[in-house]
Amino acid sequence: MSTRIQWLGHACLLIESDGRRVLIDPFLTGNPMAAARPEDVEADVILVSHGHEDHLGDTLAIARRTGATVVANYELGSWLKGQGLTKVHGMQHGGGCQVDESVHVKLTVAFHGSTLPGGGYGGNPCGFLVTFKDGTRIYDAADTGLFGDMKLIGEEGLDLAILPIGDYFTMGPADSIRAVKLLQPRAVLPIHYNTFPPIKQDVHAWAERVREETAATPLVPEPGGWSDVG
Ligand code: NI
Ligand code: MN
C-alpha cells in the first residue's frame, strides 16, 4: 500500500494514493498556518465539509484551475454549481459515491453549523469516510463534537482517523481521546488547533495521552509535513 497524507494547516489536508490527490477543506488564503499557496496545490478531488470560510476556503479557485471534482453536501454542492463548477457531487449523509476508480467517499454526520458565503443556508455539515483503491480507509470527522455513533464508523475498519482537537468550535482534546476509543483507528491525526487563539492546544500533551490511553498511533506533522498511512 502507498497512501500518504500532508497537513497543510488548520483542517486542510492533501492525501495521495494510487497517483490520485484528494484535497480536503482547502482554507489557505488567510490561514496563518497555511503550508501552501492555493495557486500551487494540485488536486483530482476536493472534499468540502461545510460552508464556513475556514473549510470552503479556496475551493472555487483551486477547482477552476485544476478541474478537480468537488464533493460536498447537496446544498453546498448546489451553491458551487451556481458559481460555475460542473464537476460536483452534492450528496447527503450516509450516502456514498465512487468518485473515480481510485476514490470512494461516504458522507458522515457532524454536529456543527454550516452557512454559505453571504449567510445562505448551507445544509448540514459532514465528515468523510474515504476508501482508496489500495484498501486504505480514512475518516475525517471535520468540525464536530463527540458522538456515540463514531463507534459505527469505526466498525468499518480505519487506518487513520482525522479529529479536531481545538475545542471551542469542535471537540477538544479530552473528547477526542474518547473519539479514538470509539473509532479504534490504527492512527490518529489532529486538526483544527493553534490556528487562532480560541483553539490553541498543546498537541504534544495530546499525543502523549493518545499513546497512554488508546491503541492508536498519534501522527503529529508540522504544517506541510507528510505522514505515511497505508
Ligand atoms: Ni465550521
Ligand atoms: Mn472550522
Describe the protein.
The protein is an alpha/beta fold and 230 residues long. It has one domain: Metallo-beta-lactamase, Chain A, CATH 3.60.15. The protein contains six helices and 14 strands. The chain has helices at 53-56, 59-66, 74-82, 150-154, 173-183, 203-213, and strands at 3-7, 13-17, 20-24, 45-47, 69-73, 88-91, 96-100, 103-109, 126-132, 137-140, 160-164, 187-191, 217-218, 226-228. Strands 6-5-4-3-2-1-14 form a seven-stranded mixed beta sheet, with helices on one face. It has a seven-stranded mixed beta sheet with strand order 7-8-9-10-11-12-13. It binds nickel (II) ion and manganese (II) ion (MN). Manganese (II) ion is lined by residues 11, 52, 54-55, 143, 169, 192. Manganese (II) ion (MN) binds at residues 11, 52, 54-55, 143, 169, 192.
Task: Write out key terms for the chains shown.
230 residues; Metallo-beta-lactamase, Chain A; 7-stranded mixed β-sheet; 14 strands; binds nickel (II) ion; binds manganese (II) ion
List the helices and strands in order.
EEEEHHEHEEEEEHEHEHEE
Structural class by sheet pairing and helices: alpha/beta
Distance between the termini: 5 Å
The CATH topology, please?
A: Metallo-beta-lactamase, Chain A
Largest sheet: 7 strands, mixed
Strand order of the largest sheet: 6-5-4-3-2-1-14
By DSSP, the count of extended strands is: 14
CATH class: Alpha Beta
Number of domains: 1
| CATH homologous superfamily assignment | Ribonuclease Z/Hydroxyacylglutathione hydrolase-like
Shape: globular
Q: Which architecture would the CATH scheme give at its second level? A: 4-Layer Sandwich
Bound compounds, each kind once, are: nickel (II) ion, manganese (II) ion
Number of helices: 6
Amount of helix: 10-25%
Look at the structure and give the mean pLDDT: 97
Low-pLDDT parts are none
Strand content: 25-35%
Radius of gyration: 16 Å
